[in-house]
Amino acid sequence: MAPTETIHSADTPHVGLFVTCLVDLYRPSVGFAAVKLLQQAGCRVTVPQAQTCCGQPAFNNGDDRHARQLAVQVLDAFEEFDYVVGPSASCLGTIRCHYPEMFANDAALLPRIEALSAKSHELVSFLVDVLGVEAVEAGFDQRVTYHDSCSALRELGIKSQPRKLLASVSGLQLNELQGTDICCGFGGTFCVKYPEISGRMAADKVDAVEASGADTLLAGDLGCLLNLAGKMRREGKSTRVYHVAEVLANMADCKSIGEGDD
């Protein structure tokens, strides 16, 4: 890890933090954890106030016009930065993988979109794959299990990166989750369109979490975590739920996701 005190220079990567809608509305501590991790790794971090939704819900539901409008807003807000980084493979997968698809027939905007896409990264992948971070200074004396989100695995190839950094967390024991690569049932609007199927998938995932013997569930996408935390809370489970960034940043002393919500 780079020193906590970041010295800015001409060579310091300037990162635009893509906070995501869910982090902004439901779990701001994940955003603060992301800033801390990036600064510790030697980055200068800016959070553009003009940022909006990445457009994924519109894109996934065939509303291409509004998806492109939101993508242009993201482009305008983040184009100036060296990198675009966010604590969500779902959102960053949209920017990295699907923005070029949205603008494939727009000769004027496509080069700018492709440049934005190429410099956009999910948080933990950016730390490990781009910055070369191998360890963090954090402690978490718990047995944890880790859920791999669909976007992380299938769009961005993220699996070993969070585990590498979690292995450096003092006191943490990772109990691998059976079926970790299986969807939790959230899937954005999938859980709205197909509630019975979604509920069954979430129930299977909660059973797997319990079978792992872990005290805490971690993941890198807040949509998955909110879905599973809600399911476990309704069933009276005591398992704590955190975004992986909160543990890596040594900020898991706040309330568990879903805890104390009315």
Keywords:
alpha/beta; Rossmann fold; 2 domains; 4-stranded parallel sheet; 13 helices; 47% helix
Describe the structure concisely:
Helices cover 47% and strands 11% of the residues.
Give a structural overview.
The protein is of the alpha/beta class. The protein has two domains: 14-130, no CATH class; 143-248, Rossmann fold. It contains 13 helices and eight strands. It has a four-stranded parallel β-sheet with strand order 2-1-3-4, with helices on both faces. Helix 12 links the parallel strand 7 (216-219) and strand 8 (240-243). Helix 11 (195-211) crosses helix 12. The model is unreliable at 1-9 (pLDDT under 50).
What is the topology, as strand order, of the major beta sheet? 2-1-3-4
C-alpha geometry: globular
Largest sheet: 4 strands, parallel
Mean pLDDT figure: 90
| Strand count | 8
Total helical segments = 13
What series of H and E elements makes up the topology? EHHEHHEHHEHEHHEHHEHEH
Query: What is the first-to-last residue Cα distance?
Result: 39 Å
Please state roughly what percent of the residues sit in beta strands, choosing from under 5%, 5-15%, 15-25%, 25-35%, 35-45% or over 45%. 5-15%
Helix/strand structural class: alpha/beta
Low-confidence stretches: 1-9
